[in-house]
Amino acid sequence: MTPADLAALLGLPDLGAGLDAVEALLDRSLEVEREEIERPARRVVLGGGKRLRPSLSLASAAVATDRAVVVDPDVVAGATAVELVQAGSLVHDDIMDGAGERRGVPTINSVEGSSQALIVGDFLLARAGLLAAGVGGEVAVALSQAIADLCIGQSAEVATLFDVDRGIDAYLRSIEGKTAALFRAACEIGALSVRVDGEVVAGLAAYGTAFGMAFQIVDDVLDLVSTAEALGKPVGNDIREGVYSLPLLLARDGADGEALRARLGHVPTDADVDHALTLVRSSQGVAAALDRARAYNDEAVAALAPVPGGPVRDGLARLPGAYLDWALADKAPALVG
Q1: pLDDT digits (tens, 9 = 90+) for 141-170
Q2: Is the pTM of this model over 0.90?
Q3: Helix (H) or strand (E) holding 102
Q4: Given CA atoms 170, 171, 177, 178 in this order, what sign does their dihedral have?
Q5: What is the DSSP letter of 163?
Q6: C-alpha to C-alpha distance for 215 and 1, rounded to whole angstroms
Q7: Structural domains of the chain sorted by starting position, each given as residue range(s) with its CATH number in brackets
Q8: Residues in a beta bridge with 102
């Protein structure tokens, strides 16, 4: 889903101009006198990505006011802060996972080493905090809360690695922190940046949370049903790392649960991963997980009730379902229809 696709879907023709402003501020935010920080930071931050979260910030600012705000300095700063947190959290994820690449770009830990990657990740979070504080106290609080929630959600996931009895509620609590919190903050910060009514801010924040939940469930489905070519990385990575996501947990509770359990609970061999993938794909777990994602998308749309009507609000209502359909068509076309 390209920025042009998002602009058309959101009914926000100025989205491209706003994202260009975000990109320029990202570039300036990475300037630092230490080349060993700036060089890898530029490689990972400016190396691509959908910029979905800053797009949500820009759309949330636009939907909450009649003014043309997508290039307003405060709105752009808030959206950029959100993207810097996203980048910093991914740098930290790559350290934890020992990842060699992300989106075809070498990770910092694989090139400069884990210690330098930790420094760069912290630098990106610090730059994000400075931008948020420059917009206002409420924006800084929203971003800080999201970072804390990211840490809590990631910690909850780590605590259940290779736990074959991981509960579905534990999974949902984890992704609410590690993924949905930043979607929430993106929408909340967009609205706070233009200082709109608190009820509208709350509605957009709830929208972001629900959309973020659906987004992560879809991502977890794709890890189990897509192909290495479509994903740009091996499938079944979550199983290898001991992260048991919703479609797998639902399959574990199904007819072939005992056979699946036998392949889990330990560092798996390639044969274990292949067998587990076969069992999940043949179960009802994938369909049930996608139903849960669609239910969260419905929650997202309902949360927009207090938000002023208009083309951008209609676009935000369309986005969660359109994203799910796009992701499946792009990465797992066999599931479409």
Answers
A1: 999 999 999 999 999 999 999 999 999 999
A2: yes
A3: strand 101-102
A4: positive
A5: -
A6: 13
A7: 3-329 (1.10.600.10)
A8: 105
